[in-house]
Amino acid sequence: MNKELMEALDILEKEKNISKETLLDAINQSLIQACKNHFGKADNVHVNINAETCDFSVFADRTVVETVSDPALEISLAEAQKINTGAQLGDIVKVEIHSREFGRIATQNAKNVILQKIREEERKVLYNQYYGIEKEVVTGIVQRIMGKTITINLGKVDAVLNENEQVKGETFRPTERIKVYILEVKDTPKGPRIQVSRTHPGLVKRLFESEVAEVRDGTVEIKCIAREAGSRTKIAVWSNDPDVDPVGACVGLNGIRVNAIVNELRGEKIDIINWDENPAILIENALSPAKVIAVLADPDEKTALVVVPDYQLSLAIGKEGQNARLAARLTGFKIDIKSETQAQEAGDLYDYEDDEYYDEYEDDEYEEGEYEDGEYADEGEYTEDEYDEEIESEQTSEDHEEDAL
């Protein structure tokens, strides 16, 4: 048993995470290459390696001839009969080759073959390892800061955090631990090249998955995310269990869950809203914390007119238009926000207070002055039943007046 070789293979297998079969295959190739360098050719060479004991042997198939013209391929009858007493002219005899007889150059080349194979397998193992966690969040250590590019050590390999993937205003110190989102893993001759990000919306999603058990197990689903890194993020959530409040699950008791994510994002504000299939309701939720009077959404054109109270206009638009911009990204609609006064002046919003009664009712619309399933959603307006009672009351009053006359 070749104990030294076996111990060396065990160490390499543990440290480099390279299988013993791969290493034995590298030894096989190196011995064949050594034979080729020593004899000039190796087409007739065979290597036998016992995977359990790590014992190996090298044989060359040579043809028995009267006169040897090519020692690498032929053997004389006298030499052949020393190996096999029954050998005859034209037979193929297996001749054992002793690796100790190889010259220095052949040995060095064999060594290089093994090292090259180990390096290739090591790169492949690292690539597969990190490719498997692409689009995931990992914790790394700030290694070097070179200008505006930061190198993050992920354990066995370094990743690159480019300037356009950094949050404006964030600063890091060497040896600082940070969470990053793996954008892309490329296989290169020098090993895997990993691009990471601190601005990608996927970072927020993965952080919620790690902090919120309901998101991790699929009870609460994150439908969409709109993010302006370093400033504000809007996230729409939906619960697959009617007994679970999706927003409450993400916020946590006393905000403990969402605060942990905010701290990781260094103070970035996070708005969590309920997702809805009705685009008008979704748009109203997306404009939170602003209150909305009416939403007139066109699903075909992906446009929406939103009417808000006059005093809520600036809140709905947000600082430098941020709230409206994030709501548009979250919903996929082009949103036009108007105050109640602006909408009435433009004729976009009908003033029902000027009319005594409603003449038409439309279902499945989420607009001011319209009905859904026989009920009116806003306060201070009529439901269908109240409207009918009002009509009957006025007719009864008119009848009494006629009787009195």
Q: Which CATH architecture of the domain at 3-129?
A: 2-Layer Sandwich
Say which CATH homologous superfamily of the domain at 3-129 is assigned: NusA, N-terminal domain
Global outline: rod-shaped
Q: H/E order of the elements?
A: HHEEEHEHEEEEEHHEEHHEHEEHHEHH
Number of DSSP helices?
Answer: 13
Number of strands: 15
CATH topology of the domain at 3-129: N Utilization Substance Protein A, Chain:P, domain 4
**Overall helicity:** 25-40%
- CATH level-1 class of the domain at 3-129: Alpha Beta
- Averaging pLDDT over every residue, what do you get? 82
Strand residue content? 25-35%
Largest sheet: 5 strands, mixed, barrel
List the strand order in the largest sheet. 5-6-7-9-8
Distance between the termini: 126 Å
Residue runs with pLDDT of under 50 for 5 or more positions: 352-405
Structural class comes to alpha/beta
The radius of gyration over CA amounts to: 38 Å
Keywords summarizing the entry:
single chain; 405 residues; alpha/beta; N Utilization Substance Protein A, Chain:P, domain 4; OB fold (Dihydrolipoamide Acetyltransferase, E2P); GMP Synthetase, Chain A, domain 3; five-stranded mixed barrel; 13 helices; 37% helix; disordered C terminus
Structure explained in plain terms:
By secondary structure, this protein is of the alpha/beta class. Among the domains are: 3-129, N Utilization Substance Protein A, Chain:P, domain 4; 139-199, OB fold (Dihydrolipoamide Acetyltransferase, E2P) (Beta Barrel), CATH 2.40.50; 201-275, 2-Layer Sandwich (GMP Synthetase, Chain A, domain 3). Helix content is 37%, strand content 25%. The protein is built from 13 helices and 15 strands. The protein has helices at 3-16, 20-39, 77-83, 104-131, 201-211, 213-216, 246-251, 256-264, 279-286, 313-317, 322-331, 340-346, 384-404; strands at 45-49, 56-65, 74-76, 92-97, 137-146, 149-153, 158-161, 177-188, 191-197, 220-228, 232-239, 269-274, 294-298, 303-308, 334-339. The strands form four sheets. A five-stranded mixed β-barrel has the order 5-6-7-9-8. Strands 1, 2, 3 and 4 form a four-stranded mixed beta sheet that branches. The chain has a three-stranded mixed beta sheet with strand order 10-11-12, sandwiched between helices. Strand 1 (45-49) and strand 2 form a beta hairpin. The chain starts with a helix and ends with a helix. Mean pLDDT is 82; it is low at 352-405.
